Amino acid sequence: xxxxxxxxxxxxxxxxxxxxxxxxxxxxxxxxxxxxxxxxxxxxxxxxxxxxxxxxxxxxxxxxxxxxxxxxxxxxxxxxxxxxxxxxxxxxxxxxxxxxxxxxxxxxxxxx
Length: 112
Known about the structure:
Elements: E1 2-6, H1 11-22, E2 26-31, H2 38-42, E3 48-52, H3 58-68, E4 72-75, H4 86-106
Parallel strand pairs: 1-2, 1-4, 2-3
Helix pairs in contact: 3-4
């Protein structure tokens, strides 16, 4: 089974990635180029892959899913810092979620 995870470098996402790997999944994480990948890389798994992209970019999400061809998508990414401008929250949490859903609709491997 193949999983595609957004937010894999966050608190919830990291725990999710660890569980999925322990259960034998191949895991593809959509990450920003600025994300700190140290913890995930320390898992030293041949089944862990990084797809660089941004939730605000529908093209990068679709490209990542096209590479992964996932059976399942776990969307756990979100902007949560209190200091960010309102627009950042909207773009990542609302527009980003819409972009993920629209990409899922185009990827035939995802179980629906």
